[in-house]
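Table S2 (text version). Query chain:
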Amino acid sequence: MMMLMLTLVKKCRWIVIWLPAILISVLSCSKNGEDNLNATPQQAEPKKSTEVQIGVPSKNLPPYFIYWNRKGIEQDILHEAFQKSNYKPIFFYYPKREKKFLKPKYNLDCISTVTEQLGYDGFYSDNVITYRDVAIYLKDSGLNINSKADLAGKRIEAFKDASKYLNIQDIVANSPYYHEHSGKASQILLLYRGKVKILLMDKYFFFHFRSKVGKLIDMNKEIVIRHLFPERSYKILCKDKKIRDAFNRGLTRLRTEGGYEQIIKHYTTKKDTVNDL
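Corresponding structure-token output:
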């Protein structure tokens, strides 16, 4: 009996010692695995001259920014370009990072990625990434989409608010075959299974999410990609011209040495024949 009591005491002691640490670890993560996004960056010592602090989106936006593992096309491009310019990039994930860029207490050197239409004072970089919303359909569908007008009356799945952003409100107005929602993987399944005829989606979104459902579809089916909409190019904005210029040099090296394309291929590998028009 005495031995049993000693064993229970030891076990309870272990629980008392470790339970607070376990609870802290659990409570420090949100449902989506995010940390405290609103926290001001805390530095144990002054920032080194070779460090650059970058505010990036806190929203998960694969394949551009993949929050849970701090990776993605844009983040990898930024990291590699700064590394090639002898800077150490440190990323901070903020909602409304543009506004935090203006507040000294956040000590952000740059924010990514924005357009010059943001209108903030500072130094804008060369183009970092281009978003391309396109029309995608299966080649054997018999469709021949050459303009936005050709979308009328077709079974279409698009991203949220696509009709506004792509300026096709009049074309799809009151169409019972046009739907918008955020489920990219499910939209791709609908396309390959013939439930819809056309996807309106960012090209890199399509290839990234298609790879996630590759075992559920016939990857041998040839697709057609039509560039019907204007491209949107994004840059980073820096407070210091020296940092901006160094980033531009690193970005140029990344492109000329082939690293830029390798990053994109890593997240958007194409495994079939594509008519990209």
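Notes on Table S2: The CA atoms of residues 103 and 128 lie 24 Å apart. The chain has two domains: 52-130+232-269, 133-226.
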